From TrEMBL:
GO MF, one annotated term: transcription cis-regulatory region binding
Keywords: DNA-binding, Repressor, Transcription, Transcription regulation
PANTHER family recorded: HTH-TYPE TRANSCRIPTIONAL REGULATOR PKSA (PTHR30055:SF226), HTH-TYPE TRANSCRIPTIONAL REGULATOR RUTR (PTHR30055)
Protein name, entry field: DNA-binding transcriptional regulator, AcrR family
DNA-binding region(s) in UniProt: 46-65
Pfam families xrefs: CecR_C, TetR_N
Residue span(s) of domain HTH tetR-type: 23-83
PROSITE patterns, per database record: HTH_TETR_1, HTH_TETR_2
Gene3D superfamilies: Tetracycline Repressor, domain 2
Annotated spans, Disordered: 1-21, 226-248
Superkingdom of this protein's organism: Bacteria
Amino acid sequence: MTRVRHPSTDTVPPVPTASEGEAPARTRLLLAALRLFSEQGYAKTSIRAIAAAAQANVAAVSYYFGDKAALYAAVFSEPLGDMHSLIPDFTDPDMPLREALQCYFRGALAPLQQGELMRQCVRLHIREILEPTGQRDRHMDKNARQPHQAFVGLLCRHMGVTQADDGMHRLAFILAGLAFQLWSHREVVDAMRPQLLATPEAVDAWIDRMTAYALAIVAAEQALRGAEPPAPASASAARAPRRKKTAP
């Protein structure tokens, strides 16, 4: 594939794979922007460099996104989907706790199957912490704070807690941490035991284990509060959990 050069950057390779090269211009721009923003940061990445990498016209950025800031915001929320879109799924009031937790973890771990795309998103967030633009704070409300509040509400409902207290928020953070610590340790897992994340089936094994661990932690919290643990899901529900949509 021919390397595209532009004065604003030494080497800006186009979006690398054939499938991406054949993707719509908006998708190519989004993926190219993710890669360049994650590698160079917001300030050092120009619209011209993104357009060149995506093999698109500079005007296409304005047409699809408006401006550089809007493109940067889209890069934060679109490539891997977001937990906010899963709130109606894992908070379904008719869903048993086991199935709700499976739905939550399935959505949280879905990006691990995206390979390099997921690694670029992690690098982007790390770079935003080091070189803040304010986008992370805006992203935090929709994709962290709102899902957290929904998760707390879910746990309170299943545990019979009428008012969320520090203990319930602590519980939600601990359970969410089971999934998101795996994100931050992805490269360590790949180096030490790559088969643990190599296939969709391997990720499903993590989901099943995390669900079991989460139920045990919920039972421990119930015991600390002096209440009966929630009734387990039926055997049939445990064997065949309902599949819910996940973040793409």
